[in-house]
Each structure stands twice: as C-alpha cells, then as structure tokens.
Amino acid sequence: MTVSEPKCLYCDQTSQQIPLISLRYQDREYWICPEHLPVMIHKPEQLVDKLPGFTPSGTPVQSQHE
Ligand SMILES: [Zn+2]
User: SS3 helix, strand, coil % of the chain, rounded to 5?
Assistant: First the structure.
C-alpha cells in the first residue's frame, strides 16, 4: 500500500525536500512548493493537468493537442 505522501503537484518534490503549502480543492488536498506557487497565481492554466476538474477563469474549455 502506498500512502500518498505530500508532494508538490507541479514538481513532485516532497516535504522532505522543500516546505510545502497545502491547498484544498473540491474536498481534496493538494500541495505546492513555494517555487511553484507563482505558477498557480500567474499561470493557473499550467495546473489544469495537475488538478482534476480545475478550469481557471479565462481558460477556454476545449481540448487541444500541443
Ligand atoms: Zn514545485
């Protein structure tokens, strides 16, 4: 059994490696490191893949292939 260890949702660093900030979204808990908190603030669309169901305002709701 794997216990889900807190780790940055962006870079996967754990709280053993870097201080993590906890987030709550739709009753689930996520963690992000200070290095990537600005991503959430300024580039939330980059977190759409990381947070299931997350659609930041301003992001066109359509699937695109890059
Ligand atoms: Zn990070």
Answer: 15, 20, 65
Q: Is 9 contained in some domain?
A: yes
Q: What is the pLDDT along the chain (66 residues), one digit of tens a residue?
A: 566 789 999 999 999 999 999 999 999 999 999 999 999 999 999 999 999 999 988 656 566 566
Q: How far is the centre of ligand 1, averaged over its atoms, from the C-alpha of 34 (Å)?
A: 7
**Structural domains counted in the chain:** 1
pTM: 0.77
CA of 29 to the centre of ligand 1 (A): 15
